[in-house]
């Protein structure tokens, strides 16, 4: 059986078009004309003997065969890029001390750290999960090299990555946690905490009474109390466990900035590479 060798450039164009929402944007991103991109797609369709896209309105959407090709294209490109990074990263060594809040520690970010470790086996990663203020204090003392935080984009060393909406969170069971006419029970971190302050301010602004029903020093404790129906809490929607859910009909709250910090120090090659992988992972996993 003769096997086809799919064109990597075409696969990258396909994935880029899906990520950006169209071939026009993909053409701009990769520096080619729209006609050149269309020719690439036709070439790939000729190779596989299937129509990969069909018209819908003014745009194109994948056919069933197109969905299959896209799924494999992402895997092929990921392996290709990982191989290139691994070969380039063999010369990178040292220690990277990385700090991050618990909101990100249990979702997709560990996969990013694993990807970094595979690509740079000579680098030792020391990851610390803590509250934002403590992480920044350790960064300023030189105990950490790179820190991901929420609500600190005004620092001189901040690289702002995203603005995340704050959302009210309750138990996924749908059981009501408050009785009409009574104060809304809150599950909060120990003070000081900007989520706590923002939630209380939003309720005050809406003229709603509230009370602190449960205080925790850890995110695990927060989720457990919400799951048990002890109250509602305010966080971002990143990394929510299955036992809790975003609530509708609650007072509006502001967004919170997500940023990376290096303490204003020159980054070593290992720190610079981890920074790139963290930023890439955030861009791929956070809502647009």
Give your account of this protein's structure:
- The chain is of the alpha/beta class.
- The protein folds into three domains: 8-88, Arc Repressor Mutant, subunit A (Orthogonal Bundle); 92-164 and 257-285, D-Maltodextrin-Binding Protein, domain 2 (3-Layer(aba) Sandwich), CATH 3.40.190; 167-253, D-Maltodextrin-Binding Protein, domain 2 (3-Layer(aba) Sandwich), CATH 3.40.190.10.
- 43% of the residues lie in helices and 23% in strands.
- The chain is built from ten helices and twelve strands.
- The protein has a five-stranded mixed β-sheet with strand order 4-3-5-12-6, sandwiched between helices. Strands 10-7-11 form a three-stranded antiparallel β-sheet.
- Helix 1 crosses helix 2 and helix 6 packs antiparallel against helix 10 (269-285).
- The model has no long low-confidence stretch (mean pLDDT 86).
Short recap of the structure:
By secondary structure, the chain is α/β, with parallel strands linked by helices.
**What would the CATH topology of the largest domain be?**
D-Maltodextrin-Binding Protein, domain 2
User: Which H/E pattern describes the elements?
Assistant: HHHEEHEHHEHEEEEHEHEEEH
* Major sheet description: 5 strands, mixed
Strands of the widest sheet, in order across it, are 4-3-5-12-6
Number of helices: 10
Report Rg.
Answer: 23 Å
Distance between the first and last residues' Cα: 43 Å
Q: In terms of per-residue confidence, which ranges show pLDDT below 50 for 5 or more consecutive residues? A: none
Overall pLDDT metric: 86
How would you classify the helix and strand content by structural class? alpha/beta
Helix content: 40-55%
How many beta strands in the DSSP annotation?
12
Count of individual domains: 3
CATH architecture classification name of the largest domain:
3-Layer(aba) Sandwich
* Share in β-strands: 15-25%
Q: What is the CATH domain class of the largest domain? A: Alpha Beta
User: Shape from CA axes?
Assistant: globular
